[in-house]
Amino acid sequence: METKKLVILSALIVLLIVLVLAFFKCGGEEIIKPLPPASLEEDKSSSDEPRELQAVTLFFSSESDEYLHPEEREIPTDSSVVNQARTLVQELLDGPEGDLLNPFPPDTKLRELFVTPEGVAYVDFSREIRDHHISGSSAEIATVFAVVNTLTRNLDSIKKVFILIDGGEKDTLAGHVDLSRPLVPRKDIEAR
Length: 192
What we know:
There is one protein chain. The chain is an alpha+beta fold. It has helices spanning 2-27, 37-48, 81-94, 128-131, 137-154; strands spanning 53-60, 69-76, 110-115, 120-125, 160-165. Helices cover 39% and strands 18% of the residues. The strands form 2 sheets. A 3-stranded mixed beta sheet has the order 3-4-5. The protein has a two-stranded antiparallel sheet with strand order 1-2.
């Protein structure tokens, strides 16, 4: 009986020590408070201010040939390479403003994009890019290299592009271009 009391008392002492340590350790952490409403309004108004624009070149397909044709645009300047890359890909997905053709299937979405320190952009598209892609090697080359050439042409820090679909690596988009490795730009398919 005496041993049982001693075991229970020891367990209670250990539990008390753990609780005291947890209390003092957590007690020193800063409590995060929400910003007052005035600060939120200030932040909102500063984001509504016009931002500086930069000229970029996007690549789209053409009905007349199998080359990628440049289309000049202006997008907001951003200090983050990732944000600039996201804007460029979204502009591609939105399609051309002129007579060129959009090489992306309708409803294709950009899921995620990040850039490694080595200059490899990982661009993750929704499954529509694969599920609704029109067949043919020319169409697949146009889709893939519209992304690769646009990103590498406009962002010096991006050297290669790795295309992902629905969060994972795929061997190919439609059976013609190897997507199992990062791709470098192909200037030979750009219209002159």
